[in-house]
Amino acid sequence: MVAYKRVLLKLSGEALMGEDAFGINRSTIEKIVDDIAQIVRAGVEVAVVIGGGNIFRGVAGGAAGMDRATADYMGMLATIMNALALQDAMKHAGLIARVQSALRVDQVAEPYIRPKALRYLEEGKVVIFAAGTGNPFFTTDTAAALRGAEIEAQLVLKATKVDGIYTADPKKDPHATRYARISFDEAIQKNLQVMDATAFALCRDQKLPIKVFSIFKSAALMRVVQGQDEGTLVHI
Q1: Distance from C-alpha of 180 to C-alpha of 5, rounded to nearest angstrom
Q2: Which residue, among 199, 222, 226, has the nearest Cα to 133 in the 3D structure?
Q3: Rounded CA gap, 25 and 15, in Å?
Q4: Strand ranges (DSSP E) for 58-205?
């Protein structure tokens, strides 16, 4: 039994690297897609916002000193590449996925059209949102908050390498404890870096809760959508 009907999953590009220095690790992306397939088959409508750090990291050295807007557009193109890889992996896993891009690349992806995205979700298809917001100076975290609000998701899932938000860095402090729940205001007061400030404020204003969890923890995604004590819930 699932606790959420529609969710927005924010995946960083780095999540696709696995143990590699950059690029896409096939076994890692297949594992992530298997987890997504489980919740789709359990009846959850899933949209994904994907980052591009795994690809852009490989050219970041050459981007040093580059115009910020140009570098951001390069990053958006990297997210489109990741979205296509994710779509292909989903096809092999038996899922139907549609890529909608905030930048026009009509030969490889549809433009972002909200009513079509909503219809796809209702049909049980996974919608992958690429190219962030389509604007420079905004992160893919902000795109996740924006798209989450637009598709009326019940929850934004922030997939990370850590299984929630802790009182301190668990790698440095053995006494650090995980928050099961924390309010937006408390997270701001404690200066907890859940998402970037713009994304965080948008989720708070739209009363859109955020669940921070580890995408690498076995079956964590399923436990999250079932409403179990997994990760950290940031709420109003």
Answers
A1: 21
A2: 199
A3: 9
A4: 97-101, 110-111, 126-130, 155-160, 181-183
Predicted pLDDT of residue 42: 98
> Does some domain include residue 56?
yes
Q: Number of folded domains in the chain?
A: 1
Q: What is the CATH number of the domain that holds 79?
A: 3.40.1160.10
Phi, psi of 112 (to 5 degrees): -70, 120
The pair of structure tokens assigned to 19 is 């143990």
Evaluate whether 133 touches 97 at the Cβ level (below 8 Å). Answer: no
Q: What angle do CA 162, 134, 161 make, to 5 degrees?
A: 5
Answer yes or no: is 1 within a domain. Answer: no
Q: Residue 69 is inside which H or E element, if any?
A: helix 68-92
The residue among 37, 11, 22, 7 whose CA lies nearest residue 130 is: 11
Q: List the domain range (segments joined by +) for residue 223.
A: 6-235
Please identify which residue in the block is written with the tokens 């297949």. 30
Of all residues in the chain, the percent with pLDDT exceeding 70 is 97
**Residue 187 counted as domain residue:** yes
Does the predicted model carry a pTM greater than 0.70? yes
User: Any idea which residue has 């019940």 for tokens?
Assistant: 154
Q: Residue 97: is its pLDDT beyond 80?
A: yes
157-215: pLDDT as tens digits? 999 989 999 998 888 898 999 999 999 999 999 888 889 999 999 999 999 999 999 99
What percentage of the chain exceeds 90 in pLDDT? 83
